[in-house]
Amino acid sequence: MLEGRVFKFGDNIDTDLIIPARYLNTSDPAELARHCMENVDPTFASRVRPGDIIVAGTNFGCGSSREHAPVAIKAAGVACVVARSFARIFYRNAFNVGLPILECAETDNIPAGSRLQVDLTNGRIRVVDSGQEYQARPVPPFMQEIVAAEGLIPYVKARLGK
Amino acid sequence: MGRVPPQTVTQKILAAHAGKEFVEPGELVSAKVDVLLANDITAPLAIREFERIGVQVFDPAAVVMVPDHFTPNKDIKSAEQAKVVRDFARRHGLPNYYEVGRMGIEHCLLPEQGLVVPGDVIIGADSHTCTYGALGAFATGVGSTDLAAAMALGETWFKVPESLKFVFAGRPGPWVGGKDLILYAIGQIGVEGALYCAMEFTGPVIDGLSMDGRFTICNMAVEAGAKNGIIPPDEKTEAYVQGRGQRPYKLFKSDPDAAYKKVYKYDVTDLEPCVAFPHSPDNVRPVSEAGDVKIDQVVIGSCTNGRLEDLRVAAKVLGGRQVHKDVRLIIIPCTQEIYRQALKEGLIETFIAAGAAVSTPTCGPCLGGHMGVLAKGERAVATTNRNFIGRMGHPESEVYLANPAVAAASAIAGWIVSPEGVR
Ligand code: SF4
């Protein structure tokens, strides 16, 4: 069970907002984390704490295929992203780098700054103060296998008997 | 033997690579990949992950690496990144590594060099990998880790997408090209209008388009959230691949009774050149309704519109004219081959005479990397594909997406105009 403070963002949060291309001359997670969300909220990187949760609208992570986006979010300490929908490349990338994400139709109702509990195994989401619960779409079986192997690379290694 | 149910071109290609006769939208399949692509930004991450697996590349000829984003290297960090890619290519004997001076922007280079052919499944650690759908191939962007796994296995998993069909009919006006068709469609359905779907482009207007125009259309499918864009192959496709295709190709077409999630029919007879206003590719207006947008910079290039036909159109508008004194015009042919051809045809001469800066192929300004980064408050017209906040530089700069004719005309006028609007 994850629990953290909610940082809220709107619809169509694209990869240039998550990590501007001007910082892509490195793939160092710590450095990417320092610029995470800079184009939409320059104070985010300094305010976010380990375990915090991003809650957003539709099409989160649209735009470029840069894996630096979920890497930056994860390295910033974010435990999980809950959005109404995700852009498909971001969706794959997040699982592949070990950043859990959940699709939930009711993210509009989750208040900014509230404490949120997220159960990844069954997709249950609970706002601690109000006790209000929401159900996220369960992770497809194929992705669960990758998550169970703790990412795509260990999964492939296991398959190749390495 | 039962009859195979009708399928779209996208289903057929995926089925063929999954060793099946039929695949259904929504089905998860493991499919063989013919070509895998990465660039100087995404390859270093893919290489790092690949080396954790500790195997050889499944087929060195299938892995293409192109340093095009921060090259020729703009600083020490980007030089180090490019070196990671170069060293890897040498160590694994990748025959399709393209060095500065022989390279091009990946999505222009791969079709031009015949590395991707009709019927292929192609994955690239770059979202505009969807460009190759113009050849009648299934091509889609993935992340670096996905690519690393596929470099080891030679296959990857896909969820078979539902297809949206776009039928373009009518008689487009003189300055209307592939860019306007795709901007119009994105303006209609929105940036999430094709989320997870295949966009299949058909109709007499698509039939009439050159391959260059078709690449432009498929290039921007991802801007509507699509998994892939695709144009069923015809004689033009075959004519294009013959003589350059390095592998045998196969032409797949949609069955007439294939199922589509939705069919959009557009008559583009009265369509004007389109402009996508900041900060979203679906914020589209006809150029005549652009209003008074004063501009500081114009970029003609990128994997969207840096091909020969685009340069010819730009030269037609710029010929004998001068770039406005307050505007910087940057023109970037997207491959070395195209650069050479443009020199032969006198296009480069026209550009320089008009007061433009012309560069060796690079993504450069398209992603705000180098070669034309915008300052705070500046505005640019670009033939690129994204106008997100801060895409070309300062978060308070603005990018307006347009076709090469409008971009060239705007460079002369100093504000956004159609080619008819320049004297
Ligand atoms: S030209 Fe722009 S959109 Fe195309 S590959 Fe380069 S950075 Fe990406």
Provide a short characterization of the protein structure:
The complex is a heterodimer of chains A (162) and B (423). With 162 residues, chain A is of the alpha/beta class. Chain A has helices at 15-18, 29-34, 44-47, 68-75, 88-97, 141-148, 152-159; strands at 2-8, 53-56, 80-83, 101-103, 115-119, 124-127, 133-135.
Describe the structure.
The complex is a heterodimer of chains A (162) and B (423). Chain A has 162 residues and is an alpha/beta fold. Chain A is 30% helix and 19% strand. Chain A has helices at residues 15-18, 29-34, 44-47, 68-75, 88-97, 141-148, 152-159, and strands spanning 2-8, 53-56, 80-83, 101-103, 115-119, 124-127, 133-135. Chain A has a seven-stranded mixed sheet with strand order 4-3-2-1-5-6-7, with helices on one face. In chain A, strand 3, helix 5 (88-97) and strand 4 (101-103) form a beta-alpha-beta unit. Chain B is α/β, with parallel strands linked by helices and 423 residues long. Chain B has a five-stranded parallel sheet, covered by helices on one side. A four-stranded parallel sheet of chain B has the order 3-2-4-5, covered by helices on one side. In chain B, strand 7, helix 6 and strand 8 (198-202) form a beta-alpha-beta unit. The model of chain B has no long low-confidence stretch (mean pLDDT 96). The interface between A and B is large, with 43 and 53 residues. Iron/sulfur cluster is lined by residues 69, 105-107, 126, 128, 302-303, 363, 366-367, 384-385 of chain B.
